[in-house]
Structure formats: structure tokens, C-alpha cells
């Protein structure tokens, strides 16, 4: 198909705008500056699909990554992409030949499942998520997901990936981070090509001028509408849509903001009801979730059943209901009033006849104006826009100076017609900027013994917009399963602090996952971004129509359906070794080497590195021959009579007699003792050690480890100095009995050469974080694939 036919089939008969066709048929730009309402999401998604599926364009990465500022926009993008793919007959599961899969990356146990998107790096797919979920993964600190999966998501998002950043005026401190990451990929080199595309209807390219990306600004290519396109009838209908603009009689002042802004909300309810037109949709956009919730509650009292609340602090099942309601176009005789926060100002396909908006930064106001008479459908009967002034001191989450500049612009206007609005000339706000040294330091994912990880939140969202995540269980306990993403709800740090303070009388108010012990423990620390906390449903704080509202809602929270995926997230856990069917160790080593060779061929990895990855696969589980591991593998009735063989997998489910025992450390030590002088030995050693994400950059004993009786005997991760591996059959060689040594724990040069820390830092300098994580991921995926096939073929 040519692109005209391709686009029409995908969009159910719509023809592409000329700029959409140029995007599909020419080289990718770096920046796209196109007015709202002209199909930017379709433009990029269908151009990517056309280049990958029709043109087989090798310069187009195989993963399309949509990074969006709001969760509601992420879900809308997912739904649209799936619909286009269905029309084209291309929608499928990960790895299905000739098909493209779509994945919404959120927090929760779905992300830890080996059967999901991350297992198919050679497949075309669309990944969609908020900047919180995607940028935290790109910084090796993925919010709401297993820390042991961080390196995999990091590698897949930085290699063979086309990042698209939409509505960048809403990204805050996340925007300079996107520019810095692009600069790092260019300077540190990736294993597979990756690139970025920034787009917005209110885009100022100077916002991308960070310390490391500034040298690239002049060379950025920009896609814009041509003069002919701007004058076309279809574009003019949108650019010249009638939007009379006036200042609302109600304003937020120091006086009416008291007592939770009760007086302000009462005035606003009256103003909205007066302006609302029967049979139509009105939209009210407020700057905080708390005010939006309060307005919705008062509207529900005044006109029951006519209001809809949209914000970012709902669970998935409630968001699905809200999104379905937003898609409706018939509102009944009385019409509908949508109350929303910034969650609706970007990209959400909604049009209202009447719109109220609180004063916001100019770029945000332009976006909000785009939700009124969006397609010019009210040009004849009349639309109405009202902006609500905010007195100095009432600007949060914005600052007074930013709103002062916006006020000067909007006060001089009597129309918000898109083609007549002033350009966006605001300077980028001052934010934390990720530097190269700090970024490379994030490659170390070892658990911090104090319970804290490096806080990457300043590089992801502005301080006033930071969130944690919560979910509810009826009987919180240490052995509760990991949360499914459908259970999770975002909560602002301030709200969560108030929740904890109000419920102190109940004793334990929240539980946090401890990845060392593999259980939920009472949380008594300070709330911080990225936390995932389990709350007691009996303590209230959430309503299905209002969302997270901890101070007002006392009734028990309806608990979402729990789903335990069986993932073993303990540091010392060996969940993947517990399988229904036992597998002999030597056979498993052979299977993983075979899968590694097939996978490196599929992703076209260079021969020398591909061979080292295959050898790492061949050696990755040699340490399972250790007596500690083998006793665990045969410690159940099904395996009691099979202790004469070495097992890689077994149905026995007990824990190792040594807490935190890591077989991959024993494998790495054995490799270096037998092959440490070979070229590439350190890379192979690292890939062997890192294949579960639990032994990567440091070797140290962990709290509560079982120690040898001899205090001079070194130990780490359950492996003791002078432990002996029995002879092991490795494909192509038979290892004699091996005495394990832990000289690598010591700083500097030792009997085994440089320390482990020095070896890994040399590898990081040689290969860079993107390549090293990519190689690490390929070994892990080969192990996953081999393990899955072993259970299939033997059954």
C-alpha cells in the first residue's frame, strides 16, 4: 500500500493531512510543532507503522515509546493505537510473527512477568506510559516495579527505541531529562539505534537547551505545517474556530480560599450552572485535585448525575469507566459538566461548548482553550470561554511570576481562536538537570542497606507534582502478594502524609515491600516519590467516584481483585528455579546457550559480542551445582530419589539453608577461576553474575546472612570462601571440582587480580551503560526463553 491507502485503512476512511504524509515518507524529524486537533498521535504512530511494516526502514527503531505527561492521555493513546492496528490487521501478541503489540507500562506486578513485552526485543511494539513510569525506567529506577527488572527495561528503552514526548509544556523537570538522555545516548553510544521526537502545539525549542544537549540544538530538524496547509479549509476550521473569551466573575482569593476553598467552590458552582447550556458539554479545569474533587461533590449535590470527575488519582478500574464516559457524545437533555485537572488539558479528544479554566502558565492555557469548540462545531451556535483569576499567593502548583506573565497575555484577549493566540515565548523554568556522572552512577541497582535508593524524582516531575503509589488490601500482612497494576492508585505526597497522620491511632497505617526479606513490613519512614505502599481498606481514604481523598472519606475502600503472579521478588528468592518439571543442569546450560545464539542473531549483534553472550549463557548456572542449591532442589517428595543428579529446575519450593544464597555468584567465581585470563573474560563474568539482576556491581555480605564459624572466612550472598563446587558438565568441557575464592571482594589487586568493583567499572567505561545493559538483558532473556521451552516441550 502507498501511505494514503495505509492511513485510510487504519483510520477507517480518513485521509492524512499533508504533514502526516511527509512524516511517513521522509526522514524522522527531531521536533514537531503542529497545532492541537490535527492528529499528532495518529501522525507519529501510523508513520512509524508504515516505515516498519511497509517500507522495512532500518533507520526506524522497532520500539515506539510514547512518553506522556498524564495517565489519562496514556490510556487514550493505547486505545487509539490498538484500534488502528486492528483496522490494519496487525494487532497481535509480543513475538507473534508479522504483528505489532501494544503495552501500557504502569506500576504493579504485571511488569515483573517474564511473559510480557520485555521478552521480545526483536519484535515491533508500541510502549505507552506516563513520564513517571517511563523516565524512572530510563534512569534505572522504575517506579512501582521489581528492582531486579530495572536493567532490562532500561536497556530496551535506550536501544532500538523511538521516544516520542508529547505535550512537552506539561513535563516540567522531566523535559530537560529527556534532552539529557538523548545527549547521553549520542555520546555514550547505544547497541541499537535510538532517537527522540519532541512535539507540542505550544513548543519552544529553546526548552531543550540543556548543558549536554545544547550543542545539538542548531542541527535539530523541525516539522511544521506549510503555509498552504495552514490556509487549507480543514486546518482553518480548527485554527479559526470561534472561542469568545472573558474573565469569570468568580476568582480565587486569599479570603475565599479558606477552609478548603469552600466559599470559592460555592461561587464557582453557581457560575458554572449559570453558563452551562442544556444538552451540551461544559468543562471546568482546576489546578489542583483537591479543588476539583470539592467542586465535583458540590455539583453532584446541586445537579445529581450530571457531573463527571477526571484527574490522575483513580485506580485502573475507575479510570476505565471515566474514559468510556469521556468518549460519549450524547449528554441527554440536561447535558454534562466535566470537572477536571491538568489531566485533561493535553491531547484528550474532548470538545465542550462552555469552558472554565483557572489561570495557568500560558502554554497550558493554550492547551486548555483547545478543549472548547475543538473542531469548530459550535461556530454557528456560539461557544464560551471563561478564565478564572488567581490572587497572588494562590498560584500553587505554579508560581506567582509564571501566572503574572500568563495573566498579562490572557487579559488582553477577547478571543481564544487558535490562529490569533500569541506565541509561546516563556523561558524554561529552572529545574534539576541530570549530569552525566550522576546518570552513570544509577547503573548500580544494589539495594541500599538503609532502605533508601537514590531519589530520581527531581529529574522526573516538579516538586509540587510528585506522587507515590498506594493500593488497598482487606487484611494487610507480610505475606500479601505484589499489587497488580489495576489495584494501584497515585497519591500526592502531601495527601499521603495527611493520610498517615490522621490514622496514627490505628497503629500501623502502611506497609512497604522489603526486597531483601521478600515480605511486606510496617512503614514508618518519610513518604517520598516512587514509594509503593499497601494500605488497610478498613481505614478508608478512597471513593470510586471521587478518587483518593484521605481526609474526607472514612468508609472502607472497595478492594480491587487481587492477582498473584507467583513472582518471587525476595533478594534470595529463586522463583525461576521452581518449575513443575525438573530439568538437569547440563541440559539447561545447553538450552540457554542455544537461545542466546538465536537471540543475538535475531537482533543482529556483532559476532564477537554475540559469542561472549552465548558463553555467558553456557556458564550462567554452573553455580547451581553448589550443595546448598542442590539440597533445595531435592528437598521434596517428588525429588527425594533424584539426589544423584545435578538439577537446574525442580518442583521443590523450600528456601535455601543460607539466606540470600545466589547461585550466579558461584557461577561467576567458577568462570573466572577457570577462564579469567581469556579475552573478554570480565564481560562474560559480569553477564553470568547479573543474569537475575541481583548480583551486579558490588560484592558484599547482606544483613542476616548466615556466616561461617571461622570469622576470617569471607562470605557474600550466601557463598563462603573455600566452598567447593563438584565436577560439572558444561557444554564442550567438564569442570573438575572447584574451590571458590572471594578475593574479588577486597579493594585493589588481589590473588585473583582486580576487585570485582574495579572490573565492573572498567566494563562500564569500555561499553557504556546502554550497551552493557543490552548485553545483560540478552543473557537474561535467553534464560527465560529456555526455561519456558523446557516446561513446554517436556510436558
Fold blueprint:
Layout (H helix, E strand, L loop, with lengths): L2 H8 L7 H8 L5 E3 L6 H15 L8 E6 L2 H18 L12 E4 L20 E6 H8 L11 H9 L2 E6 L7 H15 L6 E6 L21 E3 L2 H4 L2 H7 L5 E3 L10 H18 L5 E5 L3 H14 L4 E4 L5 H11 L9 E5 L13 E5 L3 H8 L14 E5 L11 H12 L24 H6 L25 E7 L15 E4 H10 L7 E5 L4 E4 L9 E5 L5 E2 L3 E2 L34 E2 H18 L4 H13 L7 H7 L13 E3 L13 H13 L5 H9 L25 E2 L2 E2 L3 E2 L2 E3 L2 E3 L2 E2 L16 H39 L1
Parallel strand pairs: 1-6, 1-7, 2-4, 2-5, 3-4, 5-6, 8-13, 9-11, 9-12, 10-11, 12-13, 14-18
Antiparallel strand pairs: 14-15, 16-17, 16-18, 19-20, 21-22, 23-24, 25-28, 26-27
Number of separate helices: 22
> What is the distance, rounded to the nearest whole angstrom, between the alpha carbons of the first and last residues?
43 Å
Shape label: globular
Using the coordinates above, name the CATH class of the largest domain. Answer: Alpha Beta
Biggest β-sheet description: 7 strands, parallel
Radius of gyration computed on alpha carbons: 28 Å
Describe the 3D structure.
With 795 residues, the protein is α/β, with parallel strands linked by helices. It folds into 3 domains: 3-235, P-loop containing nucleotide triphosphate hydrolases (Rossmann fold, 3-Layer(aba) Sandwich), CATH 3.40.50.300; 241-416, Rossmann fold; 575-794. Helix content is 34%, strand content 14%. The chain has 22 helices and 28 strands. Strands 3-4-2-5-6-1-7 form a 7-stranded parallel sheet, sandwiched between helices. The protein has a 6-stranded parallel sheet with strand order 8-13-12-9-11-10, sandwiched between helices. Strands 15-14-18-16-17 form a 5-stranded mixed sheet. A hairpin with a 2-residue loop joins strand 26 and strand 27. The longest helix is centred in the C-terminal third of the chain and has 39 residues, at 756-794. Residues 109-115 have low confidence and may be disordered.
Amino acid at each position: 500500500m502507498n501511505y494514503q491507502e495505509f492511513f485510510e485503512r487504519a483510520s477507517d476512511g480518513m485521509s492524512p493531512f499533508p504533514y502526516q504524509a511527509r512524516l511517513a515518507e521522509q526522514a524522522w524529524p527531531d521536533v514537531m510543532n503542529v497545532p492541537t486537533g490535527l492528529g499528532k498521535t495518529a501522525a507519529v504512530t501510523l508513520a512509524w507503522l508504515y516505515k516498519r511494516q511497509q517500507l522495512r526502514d532500518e533507520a526506524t527503531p522497532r520500539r515506539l515509546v510514547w512518553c506522556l505527561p498524564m495517565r489519562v492521555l496514556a490510556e487514550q493513546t493505547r486505545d487509539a493505537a490498538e484500534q488502528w492496528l486492528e483496522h490494519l490487521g496487525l494487532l497481535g501478541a509480543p513475538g507473534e510473527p508479522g504483528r505489532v503489540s501494544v503495552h501500557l507500562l504502569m506500576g504493579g506486578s504485571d511488569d515483573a512477568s517474564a511473559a510480557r513485552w520485555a521478552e521480545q526485543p526483536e519484535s515491533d511494539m508500541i510502549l505507552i506510559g506516563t513520564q513517571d513510569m517511563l523516565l524512572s525506567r530510563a534512569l534505572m529506577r522504575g517506579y512501582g516495579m521489581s528492582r531486579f527488572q530495572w536493567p532490562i527495561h532500561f536497556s530496551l528503552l535506550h536501544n532500538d527505541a523511538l521516544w516520542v514526548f508529547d505535550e512537552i509544556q506539561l513535563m516540567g523537570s522531566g523535559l530537560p531529562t529527556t534532552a539529557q538522555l538523548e545527549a547521553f545516548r549520542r555520546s555514550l553510544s547505544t547497541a541499537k539505534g535510538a532517537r527522540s521526537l519532541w512535539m507540542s502545539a505550544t513548543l519552544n525549542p529553546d526548552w531543550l537547551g540543556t548543558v549536554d544537549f545544547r550543542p545539538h540544538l542548531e542541527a535539530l530538524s523541525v516539522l511544521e505545517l506549510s503555509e498552504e496547509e495552514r490556509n487549507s479549509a480543514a486546518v482553518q476550521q480548527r485554527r479559526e474556530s470561534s472561542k469568545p473569551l472573558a474573565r469569570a466573575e468568580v476568582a480565587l482569593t486569599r479570603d475565599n480560599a479558606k477552609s478548603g476553598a469552600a466559599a470559592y467552590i460555592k461561587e464557582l458552582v453557581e457560575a458554572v450552572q449559570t453558563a452551562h447550556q442544556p444538552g451540551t458539554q461544559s468543562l471546568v479545569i482546576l489546578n489542583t485535585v483537591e479543588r476539583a474533587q470539592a467542586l465535583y461533590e458540590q455539583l453532584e449535590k446541586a445537579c445529581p448525575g450530571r457531573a463527571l470527575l477526571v484527574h490522575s488519582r483513580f485506580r485502573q478500574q475507575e479510570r476505565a469507566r471515566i474514559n468510556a464516559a469521556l468518549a460519549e457524545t450524547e449528554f441527554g437533555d440536561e447535558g454534562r459538566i466535566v470537572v477536571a485537572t491538568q489531566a485533561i488539558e493535553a491531547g484528550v479528544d474532548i470538545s465542550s461548548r462552555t469552558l472554565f479554566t483557572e489561570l495557568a502558565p500560558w502554554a497550558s492555557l493554550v492547551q486548555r482553550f483547545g478543549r472548547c469548540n475543538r473542531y469548530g462545531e459550535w461556530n454557528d451556535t456560539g461557544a464560551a470561554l471563561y478564565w478564572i483569576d488567581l490572587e497572588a499567593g494562590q498560584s500553587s502548583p505554579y508560581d506567582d511570576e509564571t501566572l503574572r506573565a500568563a495573566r498579562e497575555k490572557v487579559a488582553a484577549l477577547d478571543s481564544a481562536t487558535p490562529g490569533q493566540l500569541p506565541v509561546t515565548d516563556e523561558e524554561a523554568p529552572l529545574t534539576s538537570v541530570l549530569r552525566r556522572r550522576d546518570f552513570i552512577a544509577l547503573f548500580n541497582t544494589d539495594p541500599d542497606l538503609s532502605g533508601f535508593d537514590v531519589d530520581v524524582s527531581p529529574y522526573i516531575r516538579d516538586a509540587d507534582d510528585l506522587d507515590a503509589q498506594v493500593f488497598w488490601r482487606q487484611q494487610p500482612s507480610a505475606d500479601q502478594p505484589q499489587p497488580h497494576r489495576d489495584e494501584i492508585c497515585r497519591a500526592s505526597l502531601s495527601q499521603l502524609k495527611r493520610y498517615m497522620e490522621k490514622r496514627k491511632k490505628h497503629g500501623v497505617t502502611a506497609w512497604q515491600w522489603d526486597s531483601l526479606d521478600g515480605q511486606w513490613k510496617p512503614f514508618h519512614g518519610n513518604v517520598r516519590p516512587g514509594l509503593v505502599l499497601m494500605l488497610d481498606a478498613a481505614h478508608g481514604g478512597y471513593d470510586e467516584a471521587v478518587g483518593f481523598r484521605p481526609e474526607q472519606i472514612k468508609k472502607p475502600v472497595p478492594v480491587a481483585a487481587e492477582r498473584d503472579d507467583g513472582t518471587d521478588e525476595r533478594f534470595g528468592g529463586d522463583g525461576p528455579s521452581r518449575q513443575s518439571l525438573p530439568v538437569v543442569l547440563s541440559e539447561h546450560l545447553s538450552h540457554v546457550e542455544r537461545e542466546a545464539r538465536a537471540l543475538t542473531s535475531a537482533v543482529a549483534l556483532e559476532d564477537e559480542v554475540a559469542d561472549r553472550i552465548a558463553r555467558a549463557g553456557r556458564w550462567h548456572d554452573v553455580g547451581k551445582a553448589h550443595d546448598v542449591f542442590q539440597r533445595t532442589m531435592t528437598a521434596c517428595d517428588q525429588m527425594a530419589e533424584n539426589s544423584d543428579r545435578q538439577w537446574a529446575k525442580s518442583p521443590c519450593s523450600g528456601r535455601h539453608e543460607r539466606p540470600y544464597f545466589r547461585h550466579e555468584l558461584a557461577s561467576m567465581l567458577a568462570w573466572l577461576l577457570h577462564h579469567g585470563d581469556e579475552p573478554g573474560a570480565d564481560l562474560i563474568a559480569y553477564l553470568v553474575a547479573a543474569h537475575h539482576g541481583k548480583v551486579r556491581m558490588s560484592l558484599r555480605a547482606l544483613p542476616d546472612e548466615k556466616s561461617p564459624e571461622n570469622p576470617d572466612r569471607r562470605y557474600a550472598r550466601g557463598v563462603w570462601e573455600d566452598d567447593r563446587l563438584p565436577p560439572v558438565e558444561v557444554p564442550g568441557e567438564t569442570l573438575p571440582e572447584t574451590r571458590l575464592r572471594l578475593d574479588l571482594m577486597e579493594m585493589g589487586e588481589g590473588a585473583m587480580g582486580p576487585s570485582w568493583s574495579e572490573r565492573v567499572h572498567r566494563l562500564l567505561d569500555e561499553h557504556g551503560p546502554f550497551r552493557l545493559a543490552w548485553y545483560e538483558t540478552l543473557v537474561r532473556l535467553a534464560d527465560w526463553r529456555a526455561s519456558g521451552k523446557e516446561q513446554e516441550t517436556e510436558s
